[in-house]
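target protein:
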Amino acid sequence: MSDVITLKKISQLLNISISTASRALKDHPDIADTTKQKVRELAEMLEYEPNPFAIQLSTSHSNIFGLIVPEVSNLFYTSFIDAVENEGRKAGYMLIILKTDDDPEIEANHIKYCKKQRVAGLFACITPNASNFDLFQSLGKSGIPVIFFDRVPDSSNCNTVCFADETAATIAAEAILKKNKKKVLAIFAEPSLSITQKRLKAFRKVFQQNTNAPKLDIYHTNHYENIKEIIKQQLENKDRPDTIFCMTDVILTGAMKAIHELKLRVPDEVAVITISNSDFFPKLYTPEITYVETSGYKLGVLALSTMITCVKEDVPYQELYVDSYLVEGQSL
């Protein structure tokens, strides 16, 4: 049929009130079973579909989750989004993906948009140097739970799902120590990020506690060209590092590009170890890269289950973690 079928039309055809038709479809106990049956049969025959906007207004929320992410081309974020979308669909939720490009102003606009649209909940990976925590908190006050993931605020007054970042960095550092290396170049992301701070602190601690630890040089950047130039410059020095540690897959790709341009052999001339979202990037190279796995998909599954709990009931703030483990390649 070309006409849109509404509750009003159903109520007119059955000569009942709109509220009665609505309660009949919701199986309200005050409505007679015979009336419920008539309403359901007519609604099915006319292919009636409830108006999602009307439902949103009546319930003060929707069946849509918002997800704020720095970018979508990164494999980690793609894996996380896949998990949230797949698991959310099973629970009857849809997903809106909003990209910030690490711009705090864009992030602020996205938060306001999600509040205006009355999303059921919001997943957020914050921008570096983000100052929008008050805006995020305003969502909570409006009954919209927020789950921060990966890059999270340095606050206990929120729900976070992260990797066991200290554990991941510790595993990587201990793997290097076992190889009796002499000089390690470690590339970390922006120092303002809590994920960087946690991984750096744990990585450095392993070296400080071992008297036979190799010399450690630390640099911060997450931009591909900067990564490549820093590593090329260090590898061209006479006293060059014999090992490179990469905090992320992005850093790994920059490091491997520099190594290939200098025609250095891995691991004979320079060893490499990384923290990686999956086996995708480490297995792109020959030999395969040794890495500590931090699964974006597993993190997404944990984030979604936490969100469902927060939507259904009022729970205390939580800090939840996904464990990491070493995957041996031939690059170390």
